[in-house]
Amino acid sequence: MHHTDIPTRSDIVELATAREPGSVSIILETSTNPSDTSHIRLDLKNQVKVAVEQLTAAGADRAAIAAFTKTVDDLQEDPDFLRYLSSSLALYISPGLTRYFRVPNILHSCAEVSDRFYIKPLMRALTFPQSAYVLALAQSGVRLVAVSRDLPATSIELEDVPADVAAAAGVDSIRGRGSDGRSPQGRIQGSEGQKVRMQEYAQAINKALTPVLAGSKEPLILAGAEPMTGIFRAVSSYKHLVKPEIEGNQQERSDEQLAAAARPILDELYAAELHTLCEEFGTRASNGRAVTDLGDVARAATANAVDTLFVDIDSNLPGTVDETTGVVTLAADADATNYGVIDEILRRALLSDARILAVRADDVPGGGALAATVRFPV
Hints:
Layout: H1 9-17, E1 23-29, H2 37-57, H3 62-77, E2 88-94, E3 97-103, E4 110-114, H4 120-127, E5 132-138, E6 141-147, E7 154-156, H5 165-169, H6 190-213, E8 220-224, H7 228-235, E9 241-247, H8 255-286, E10 290-291, H9 294-302, E11 306-312, E12 318-321, E13 328-330, E14 339-340, H10 341-351, E15 355-359, E16 370-374
Parallel strand pairs: 5-8, 8-9, 11-15
Antiparallel strand pairs: 1-2, 1-4, 2-3, 5-6, 6-7, 10-16, 11-16, 12-13, 12-14
């Protein structure tokens, strides 16, 4: 089982704004298999050694290095620290801050030492958060399930929702019979009447969903069968209701089963969104509003001009970026006096409210380590 602590955007902004010499970022590829714990401990030991070597080379005093290693030792003394893991562990330690996140993305192990933290690995979890709502819908009842990458799927109570279609229409059955078995006078009968009652039920559900989903941008995925799903789709006022559905009768499925069925749909939605963004990038590039050159992107990020930034999650180039001009100076090797240039460009874009897309190399327009659409030419 994966145990995750997905960072929020505010968590990453906190790390992005921290600036202190001797800041250490350690990324570990981990596993949920208990038999891998000894290997993970060895990997952590090796990454700590790399960090200590960089701190020593940068002239850090012995007390600062001892404080760093003691922090790592204290974390490892916690029996739960390496017992409950996900696919990767991101650890951040400076003289004034210690944070760690267990993330479900597979990240390459590394150690980075600088006056700032290495935040790019965390952005993958925010790019595609794997969260949504599933509405399990049938004539016999409704259930709203919240789906999250780092928490168990849970049902959310909907207030003032009739138990079923018949209850929404104030009759004992969908056929419209009253308690005496007779058809109510003045009511539409037959298949047309059943459709009207399903529409009344769908409207009641939509009304109950409105306060629950207010302000949300999460996808809403329908789980059910026609005609109920089609009728609900026609009356829904939630603008993030998506087209793909979990088909069939879902009333017997557990919350976790619905969540499992939703995840391939989320992958499909994210792939489609990324394709659309890449097409938009091409259009904006033809109008001079997109850049792929490392230096151009760095200058745009420094000028707060980046609108959307595509970043290769695996790429890393040591060096520096001028604070004022954005001029990039690359270094032959990483050390405690430089930092990841791509990470620094990402940091500047993030702090100017750009959208960050941490993706694999093949998904970066132009084939480079990064690309950006810009708010204005730089």
